[in-house]
Amino acid sequence: MDRQVGKSIDDPDAYPVYYRLKQLTTKPLPNGNLQQVYAAGREGKCQVGYELNLSRNIVGWSIVEKPDECVIEPPRP
Fold first, then answer.
1. Which residue, among 77, 76, 24, has the nearest Cα to 48 in the 3D structure?
2. Residue ranges covered by each domain of the chain
3. Which of 8, 26, 41, 59 has a Cα-to-Cα distance from 32 of 20 to 30 A?
């Protein structure tokens, strides 16, 4: 997932596009960026959030909901 950072969210190779994930929500963040949340994992129960800058490039990611449903590990601090 860390390899997604720096890619455009619209890139055909970006995780949400490549795997055709269902977008659940979009919300503005206090720093001016956006967070887009997608259903991922088996049966779409894992919720992965991507932080996008104004150019729609991915600047970060996180597991938003139901981490026990995710097979990916969150970024280490």
1. 24
2. 2-69
3. 41
